[in-house]
């Protein structure tokens, strides 16, 4: 019995050791055939697939590139090239720090305006790195703002998510499913907790980055606020066209839709709480880089939010917000920009006490690493 077991283990070990050697021999044999016939699609694809199995991803990359040189529409080679590039692409971490100050003419969003100045800071991290044969992306965002006089408006938030990047065969697009969560503080106490799941579709078209994100989640507000708890779902997106009027400009549109099923503790909502509503809108922008040191843009946002009828009538708000930005690139050193923003907001509601106007002007410094 023991002898039979020993023989079985010995045979299994020998087979395991022989398999990589056999694969390596096959890889060498196919490569010799490729050298004899370098334009053969069949041989190059076979070699690329063997190289992937053997973990020689750069050899596979070169083989897929050879196929596409002679057969640009080959779907197998295109998908393989995209897949291998993901695997061999090194890890990358991008960090953005922004510090600024904003003046607002109506910080409380009321019919009788109250002006104030706030200071804010944000930190954003985006990390991508391969784990095995899959590339993963992690996002982290920290934000906080404090007002000079209206301290009850002080706000801070923390959020993050993580998920793999999966290429969609036959396209230049990828999908990134992810799970995330976050929390926020408002008026000196916890505001809400949030958990969510996302699916981000992204890619490049004519050199411009395009994306659509689907997100669903559950948010639980502190009982001291008017909102309670519930689910939500939203779709956000961004589509851009480059070189519209000249080679240094772009036009973009960022439409969104949101459905909120978050109830109210006291049957009412404020402009700083969520609620039972459906909202849709879009931001349109024209941006242009005039020189390496100067960029500018103009934008316009329009949105419509319809609240569920809570017994006092259905509230219907339209908001309009034109704005403009000027960016002085690398003004304070490499990757250190100075940005000036202006925005005018006009909220029109069928309930007079929710109609208001606000102006804001921002001076910010942005560091990118």
- How large is the share of residues in beta strands? over 45%
* SSE order: HHHHEEEEEEEEEEEEEE
Judged by helices, strands and strand pairing, the structural class is alpha+beta
Helix run count: 4
The averaged pLDDT comes out at 87
> So what's the oligomer here?
single chain
Silhouette: elongated
- Side by side, the strands of the main sheet go 1-2-3-4-5-6-7-8-9-10-11-12-13-14
Which value, in Å, is the CA radius of gyration?
27 Å
Fraction of residues in H or I helices: 10-25%
The total of beta strands comes to: 14
Can you put this structure into words, describing what you see?
A hairpin with a 2-residue loop joins strand 5 and strand 6. The chain has 4 helices and 14 strands. The termini are far apart. The chain is α+β, with helices and mostly antiparallel strands and 369 residues long. The longest helix has 35 residues. It has a 14-stranded antiparallel beta barrel with strand order 1-2-3-4-5-6-7-8-9-10-11-12-13-14.
């Amino acid at each position: 019995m023991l002898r039979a077991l020993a023989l079985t283990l010995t045979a299994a070990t020998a087979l395991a050791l022989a398999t990589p050697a056999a694969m390596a021999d096959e890889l060498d044999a196919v490569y010799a055939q490729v050298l004899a016939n370098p334009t053969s699609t069949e041989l190059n694809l076979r070699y690329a697939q063997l190289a992937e199995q053997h973990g020689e991803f750069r050899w596979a990359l070169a083989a897929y590139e050879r196929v596409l040189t002679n057969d640009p529409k080959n779907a197998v080679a295109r998908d393989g090239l995209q897949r291998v590039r993901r695997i061999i692409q090194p890890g990358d971490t991008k960090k953005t720090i922004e510090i600024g100050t904003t003046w607002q003419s109506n910080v409380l969003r009321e019919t009788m305006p109250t002006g104030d100045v706030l200071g804010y800071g944000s930190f954003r991290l985006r990390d991508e790195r391969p784990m095995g044969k899959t590339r993963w992306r992690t996002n982290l965002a920290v934000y906080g703002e404090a007002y000079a006089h209206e301290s009850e408006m002080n706000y801070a938030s923390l959020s993050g998510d993580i998920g793999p990047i999966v290429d969609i065969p036959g396209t230049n697009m990828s999908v990134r499913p992810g799970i995330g969560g976050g929390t926020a503080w408002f008026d000196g106490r916890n505001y809400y907790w949030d958990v969510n799941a996302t699916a981000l579709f992204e890619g490049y078209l004519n050199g411009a980055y395009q994306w659509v994100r689907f997100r669903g989640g559950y948010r639980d507000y502190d009982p001291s606020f008017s909102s309670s708890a519930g689910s939500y779902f939203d779709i956000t997106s961004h589509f851009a066209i480059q070189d519209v009027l000249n080679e240094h400009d772009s036009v973009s549109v960022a439409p969104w839709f949101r459905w909120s099923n978050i109830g109210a503790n006291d049957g009412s909502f404020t402009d700083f709480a969520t609620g039972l509503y459906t909202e849709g809108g879009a931001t349109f922008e024209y941006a242009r880089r005039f020189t390496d040191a100067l960029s500018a843009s103009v934008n316009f946002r329009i949105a419509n939010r319809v609240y569920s009828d809570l017994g006092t009538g259905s509230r219907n708000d339209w908001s309009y917000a034109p704005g403009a930005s000027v960016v002085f690139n690398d003004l304070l050193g490499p990757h250190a920009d100075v940005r000036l923003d202006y925005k005018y907001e006009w909220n029109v509601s069928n309930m007079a006490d929710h109609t208001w106007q606000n102006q804001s002007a921002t001076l910010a410094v942005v560091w990118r690493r």
